[in-house]
Write a structure and sequence with these properties.
The chain is an alpha+beta fold and 457 residues long. The protein contains eleven helices and eleven strands.
Length: 457
């Protein structure tokens, strides 16, 4: 039983639209089936009432006529009243109908015949029963017409040309109803679930670009309110990011003035050794401030998404660094169209390859593509990073000591920028130590073109 339920559960549609279609089709089909059953029941009752009333009146009239004529004339009357839908016969004793008299239709016709024979002296011996014939129900009536004379009447309860319960008209109407319900259910489900799909796309796009166009605020009232709340959230997030970048840029800009004043004062120091140390520290501070300003400008810049060949872009970056004197090996790859911010991705790849050549001497770059994403892999033969610091290196201004110190590794914003760019595109960036030594850095980007600032839902 558990396996059967599990198998049935797997057959159920997973999407909201599929479940809505299934619910509507099954519900309305069951409703139609019940209405057909009730219709057929009412139809049978109506036919029984009509046919039974006619049968009762004809039998009662024949019985009264036979009771009013001499015995020798009764066979003539019976022959005259005979009809294709009413068979009559005379008997000298009470015949046995050999039929079911417990059916509600038999009881109904018995009451009708008794009412039509109201005042008839022999009505107490009246019996009406139901018999199933080859073409439908047959009513059989045993009516005493005189002392020692009995009338046996047999007639169809329903007209021979009446449609059957499962007529072609009912089957055609059921098929038309099913197709109409299915089409209407699919249309309604798609219309109802479209705002949910749009909101899911907008939420995914918001994770890559807080400046993306707002969500359409239309549809049912509940969906409209949800879209309005989503747009308000996006506005607050955009304002928060902009305020953070503006504050970062303002602080970095304001720090340049005291650094310049300190440099001027250091020029008048008499101790040459202390002067050199102070100027070196001020140079480091100036480099950090300039990096902060560049980082803020990069974050604040609004670049449109466009589809480019990522393989060609990576090969171009590697070629430029090779021309600048770096040792870079790039494995060629098939064209990989990806929707991205070209300048941002170029900077991320440049940072990774530059780090690899700076700390490992040379870099090897390759691309791996799956059905859903593409991975840019940069490997070097350097000393690597302690395992406990593999995640911390993505924090701004975090620098690993030893070979990756301040003198050789910049100010510690390179990997932070790489991860920020990757996540803006709906991807991720990570580093890991290679088993044979060295470091492997990976940028994962969605292979399917994503919605950009210029796209609409």
């Amino acid at each position: 039983m558990t396996r059967l339920l599990s198998w049935a559960h797997r057959l159920l549609p997973r999407t909201f639209a599929g479940q809505t279609v299934l619910l509507l089709v099954v519900g309305l089909s069951l409703s139609h089936a019940l209405s057909v059953v009730f219709h057929q029941h009412d139809r049978e009752m109506l036919l029984a009432a009509t046919g039974g009333s006619e049968f009762a009146h004809r039998v009662a009239a024949t019985a009264r006529s036979l009771g009013a004529v001499p015995p020798q004339v009764r066979p003539v009357v019976v022959d005259a009243v005979q009809a294709p839908d009413l068979r009559l016969s005379l008997h000298d004793g009470p015949p046995d109908p050999s039929a079911d008299d417990a059916d509600w239709r038999a009881e109904y016709v018995h009451r009708l015949v008794a009412e039509a024979l109201s005042g008839w002296p022999y009505v107490e011996d009246l019996r009406v029963a139901l018999r199933e014939g080859p073409s439908g129900a047959l009513m059989v009536a045993r009516v005493p017409v005189a002392e020692g004379a009995w009338l046996m009447a047999e007639g169809a309860l329903v007209a021979q040309d009446a449609p059957s319960s499962l007529s072609m008209d009912i089957m055609v109407s059921t098929l038309i109803m099913f197709v109409a319900v299915l089409v209407a259910a699919i249309w309604a489900a798609r219309r109802l679930t479209r705002p949910l799909r749009d909101m899911a796309l907008a939420a995914d796009r918001l994770g890559r670009d807080v400046t993306a166009p707002p969500l359409r605020e239309d549809g049912p009232e509940e969906v409209k309110r949800a879209a309005e709340a989503f747009n308000r959230m996006q506005t607050r997030l955009r304002r928060l990011v902009e305020d953070r970048m503006q504050m970062l840029a303002a602080i970095s800009h304001d720090l340049r003035t005291p650094i310049t004043l300190l440099r001027l004062r250091a020029e008048f120091m008499e101790d040459a050794a202390e002067q050199a140390k102070t100027l070196h520290t001020l140079d480091e501070m100036a480099e950090m401030v300039n990096s902060l300003l560049a980082f803020a400008r990069e974050e604040a810049a609004e670049e449109d998404m466009r589809v480019v060949d990522l393989a060609a872009l990576v090969e171009t970056v590697c070629a430029d660094l090779t021309d600048a004197g770096a040792k870079v090996t790039c494995n060629p790859a098939e064209p990989l169209p990806v929707s991205c911010r070209v300048s941002a991705v170029r900077r991320a790849v440049t940072n990774l390859v530059g780090n690899a050549t700076r700390h490992g001497g040379e870099a090897a770059v390759l691309l791996e593509a799956t059905s859903s994403q593409v991975r840019i892999i940069v490997e070097d033969d350097g000393p690597g990073i302690p395992d406990e610091e593999l995640e911390q290196v993505f924090r701004p201004f975090y620098r690993v000591e030893r070979s990756r110190n301040r003198d050789t590794g910049g100010v510690g914003l390179g990997l932070a920028v790489v991860r920020s760019i990757a996540r803006q595109h709906g991807g991720e960036a990570c580093v890991e130590n290679r088993p044979q030594g060295g470091l492997r850095a990976v940028i994962s980007l969605p292979l399917t073109p994503a919605l950009g600032a210029g796209d609409t839902l």
